[in-house]
Design brief:
The structure holds 2 protein chains of 2 kinds. Chain A is an alpha/beta fold. Chain A is built from 8 helices and 16 strands. The relative contact order of chain A is 0.11. Classes of the chains: A alpha/beta, B alpha/beta. Strand 16 of chain A pairs parallel with strand 14 of chain B, so a sheet runs across the interface.
């Protein structure tokens, strides 16, 4: 019986993949298992069973204490080769992506990363991912006997927890000490915001020229109960925002009920992060800005007059 | 010290148009990905700091590379290997890693292999890791600060949850993040001089690969379709004076149930 093996450095994503894997397994006549690696791995097994794993492989081998891609890839390879693993589903964080390429090479398997949809097709898993910088969505299948797929977080909803027990396999891995050592970890600027969970989202783009104009946008955010995100320029170049607030291909992927873009032209690198919003609103003074192609409601105008007016209107409704 | 920089030509993403949901690539110029240029720039900086190093750029692309390759050569590469054979076209990530590994093994000397953290078009991030595995190299991805000294490499990596400082002995493979540097614009004289730097064009035979080991024939991923996503939006532009526009917007959002709940 073929096996779907889940691994994610971030447990939350692994739970989503186990939940989804359970449904795929039913269709494919397969089983779902998960690999837990590193310090404290064994204690998490119960959670993985609760989300539907049939079997959990565990190793707290000292070489796995710090995440080094080569060592983790070797561990996953040894698990994948010991069982009947056909599909390796990996959480597509930065660590997950580097891991996908390295373990795929070890297994002589094809790999697809950053999947944002996965479905069963003809006994295989068909995967969607963005291509051409987000201009298109490519549907792909891996054709090698073993298949490596890294899936973005929030692609699948977390399934319900169940009372379930499964088999714990304590791995006896043959691993060497990592040749790359972690000497320090520095916290990122303490911005704890989680835009991916935001119900209401306002994003600021290059069209917002003056930093003091953020005050009116913050007021709007407060009135709507919205979080504020941005395109690349205000975060990377102007440093107005932490990277945690960058939305798009190389940033967060958000699915709010309401998304308002302010001074954003609508380049695909940003809009891929918001196309799943329920309602899209744009304020931009250029009526030809591509953002208006994907909006539900647009105002062609200067945000510096539109936003204060909008704030006034919202306040009058309270 | 031998540095290899791997680069790939991509279509200019800003100029891709969509027609009947299909990307139109005709007449779209080929450019270097931004991240590839960051890798090239960082290699040039390492060389400047060390004083002595040889940078070889290994570039994959079309026959238009003959022109395009002048840019990395003018930025500081000493030599170029071009993988332009039509048989290489359509390679997937693992196929590309195989080509690069064969080319780098043929070059022979490599202390530091550098790439962008992903290609700027597909951003799959697979090639570097697969290449590191093939060459048996230590790997550090998403690097935003790099120091190479005394046979060691120290890197600050921009990871999801923290900045991670890592150290390894050479040889190693490094992928760079966009914030690591600002790629230089080569001066006219540098571009003129670039034309006389050595260039080699290697086909499958030069890499010891047969026709079914390269290009689409060797792919492990099949693309079933590649279309622009369908957009189903209302596309209402609010009309009237400012008051009317804003009232219209708030009314619409209230009706949609996203405001005033």
């Amino acid at each position: 019986m073929s096996e779907i093996l889940v691994y994610s450095y971030i447990d939350e994503t692994a739970f989503e993949l186990v939940s989804a894997g359970k449904a795929f397994a039913k269709e494919l006549g397969a089983t779902v298992s998960a690999t837990l690696l590193g310090e404290g791995a064994a204690a998490k097994a119960g959670d993985y069973f609760a989300y539907g794993a049939d079997k959990v492989y565990v190793s707290e081998h000292p070489a796995l204490t710090d995440f080094y891609v080569g060592t983790y890839a070797e561990a996953l390879k040894q698990v994948a080769e010991s069982g009947d693993v056909e599909f390796l589903l990996i959480g597509s964080s930065k660590r997950g992506k580097e891991l996908a390429g390295r373990v795929a090479q070890k297994l002589n398997a094809g790999a697809v990363t950053d999947a944002n949809a996965v479905r069963v097709k003809d006994g295989n898993l068909e995967v969607d991912r963005y291509a051409f910088g987000g201009n298109t969505v490519a549907s792909q299948v891996v054709t090698t006997p073993k298949k490596v797929i890294s899936v973005m977080s929030k692609t699948f909803e977390l399934g319900p927890r169940e009372e379930k027990q499964g088999e714990v396999v304590n791995l006896d891995l043959d691993l060497e000490d990592p040749p790359v050592k972690v000497v320090e970890r520095r916290d990122k600027a303490g911005d704890e915001v989680n835009l991916e969970e935001a119900e209401m989202l306002i994003c600021v783009g290059r069209g917002v020229q003056a930093k003091e104009d953020l005050a009116m946008i913050e007021e709007l955010a407060k009135l709507l109960g919205a979080e504020i995100g941005c395109t690349r320029t205000p975060a990377s170049d102007w440093q107005w925002f932490s990277e945690e607030r960058m939305v798009g291909l190389s940033g967060k992927k958000c699915k709010p009920s309401l998304y308002i873009s302010i001074g954003i032209s609508g380049q695909i690198q940003h809009t891929v992060g918001v196309v799943d919003s329920k309602i899209i609103v744009a304020v931009n003074k250029d009526e030809n800005a591509p953002i208006f192609n994907i909006t539900d409601y647009g105002i062609v105008g200067d945000y510096a007059v539109v936003v204060p007016k909008l704030n006034e209107k919202l306040k009058s409704m309270r | 010290m031998d540095i290899i920089v791997c680069m790939k030509q991509i279509p200019d993403l800003q100029q891709i148009r969509i027609k009947e949901r299909k990307p139109v690539l005709e007449n779209v110029p080929l450019v270097w990905g931004d991240l590839d240029k960051n890798a090239m720039e960082e290699a040039a900086k390492v060389k400047e700091k060390l004083g002595e190093a040889k940078i070889t750029v290994v570039a994959k692309g079309s026959d238009k590379l003959q022109q395009g390759i002048l840019e990395p050569l003018a930025m500081g590469a000493d030599e170029a290997v071009l993988l332009t054979d039509p048989a290489f076209a359509g390679s997937d990530s693992l196929g590309t890693a195989r080509l690069l590994a064969k080319a780098i093994e043929k070059i022979g000397a490599y202390d530091l292999v550098m790439l962008g953290e992903g290609s700027t078009d597909n951003y799959s991030g697979v090639v570097a890791s697969a290449l590191a595995e093939r060459l048996g190299l230590s790997e550090m991805t998403y690097v935003r600060e790099l120091e190479v000294e005394g046979g060691k490499v120290r890197a600050v990596r921009n990871m999801d949850e923290s900045f991670e400082v890592m150290e390894a002995d050479l040889p190693a493979l490094v992928t760079v993040a966009q914030e690591i540097n600002e790629p230089r614009l080569p001066k006219f004289m540098a571009i003129r001089k670039a034309g006389s730097k050595p260039r080699h064009e290697w086909g499958p035979g030069d890499l010891g690969l047969s026709a079914d080991e390269v290009g689409e024939n060797a792919n492990s991923v099949e693309v079933l379709s590649n279309l622009a996503p369908e957009q189903d939006r209302k596309n209402v532009i609010l009309q009237g004076n400012l008051d009317e526009q804003v009232s219209g917007l708030v009314d619409a959002l209230t009706k949609e149930g996203v405001v005033g709940r």
